[in-house]
Amino acid sequence: MVNQLFTIGYSPHILESFLRVLKKHKITAVADVRSSPYSQFKPEFNKETLQDFLKTNNIAYVFLGDYCGARVEDPSCYVKGKVDYKLVAENQKFKEGLKRIKNGMKDFRIALMCAEKDPITCHRTILICRNLISPEIKIKHILSNGKIEEHKDSEHRLMKILKLNHPDLFRSEQQRLDDAYLRQGEKIAYEIAEPTNEHWGQ
């Protein structure tokens, strides 16, 4: 059985348009993967306000930022003061978060929610979805216009932006894709303002 998993960024929306898009794609649960579930610019998307709004409209809400957020608490996931997505992928708490998402998909049609409107500029895609890819899960990104971008198409778009979409005599397509994930991860990963150690936790 193939389960569908959606992602969405709330920044282009007000609550009403956000709800319309969720209803359009029959989303029954929102998994908030922000590290801090509050917004200075869109306070209507603060945790409590959003949770109450979704509940009123029969959509479940769960906060998973402590498991799958971009600002990882574990110092061992940092290198030179910056989050390393490869280390996060091996982190036990992150793996527990992925397990919760997979279990939730059995009963709900889930959308992973963060702020960024473009899925390829957000950790929900570059970190979380990358580590959820399997034949049993079909990942779809809800774009700012409400349309769907299949995860494979997001990957191809990322590779094109990074000029890794052309055949390479020395690297397979998978190797080029892995490189694209690595580069984008380094570009968007959370970095502390003033790292105190060259290698945190090492």
Provide a descriptive summary of the structure in words.
- The protein has helices at residues 15-24, 47-56, 65-68, 85-89, 92-104, 123-128, 151-161, 173-188, and strands spanning 3-9, 29-32, 60-63, 78-79, 82-83, 110-114, 137-142, 148-150.
- The chain is α/β, with parallel strands linked by helices and 202 residues long.
- It has a single domain, classed as Alpha-Beta Complex (Protein-Tyrosine Phosphatase, Chain A), CATH 3.90.190.
- A hairpin with a 5-residue loop joins strand 7 (137-142) and strand 8.
- The protein is globular and about 55 Å long.
- The model is unreliable at 195-202 (pLDDT under 50).
Describe the secondary-structure layout.
Layout: E1 3-9, H1 15-24, E2 29-32, H2 47-56, E3 60-63, H3 65-68, E4 78-79, E5 82-83, H4 85-89, H5 92-104, E6 110-114, H6 123-128, E7 137-142, E8 148-150, H7 151-161, H8 173-188
Parallel strand pairs: 1-6, 1-7, 2-3, 2-6
Antiparallel strand pairs: 4-5, 7-8
Helix pairs in contact: 7-8
Short structural description:
By secondary structure, the protein is of the alpha/beta class.
| CATH-derived architecture | Alpha-Beta Complex
- The number of helical segments is 8
User: What is the alpha-carbon Rg in Å?
Assistant: 17 Å
Overall residue-averaged pLDDT value: 94
Structural class: alpha/beta
